[in-house]
Amino acid sequence: ELRPEHVFEFYQTLALQIARPAPRDFTPERRQMVKGRMGQRSLADFKTVFAKCRGSPFLRGDNDGRTPLTFDWLMKKANFQKVLEGNYD
């Protein structure tokens, strides 16, 4: 069963893998954002989004280090949808 804590931990691991700052605290606000995405999306969607973040030079910040990718940015409904749909592939 996917739990909000798992999503947060998966993102922390992803951030370390792609040399992005990892979020430290799983705040109540962040928990609510994750629950919002979990209510609309499947585990497969989360896996896809994390894979797309890992695979996107733009989201990794490869060129100039500038990327919008943070945990809070990714968990916003519109941004999660954009990544899922491949806008940053």
Please provide a written account of the structure.
Helix 1 packs across helix 2 and helix 1 packs parallel to helix 3. By secondary structure, the chain is mainly alpha-helical. The model has no long low-confidence stretch (mean pLDDT 95). The chain has six helices and no strands.
Short summary of the structure?
This protein has helices spanning 4-17, 28-40, 43-55, 57-60, 71-75, 77-84. The chain is an all-alpha fold and 89 residues long.
Short key terms for the protein model shown above:
0% strand; 89 residues; 6 helices; mainly alpha
Structural class by secondary-structure content: mainly alpha
The biggest beta sheet reads:
none
Provide a count of the helices. Answer: 6
Following the backbone from N to C, one meets helices and strands in this order, namely HHHHHH
Tell me the overall shape: globular
Distance between the termini: 28 Å
- State mean pLDDT (0 to 100 scale): 95
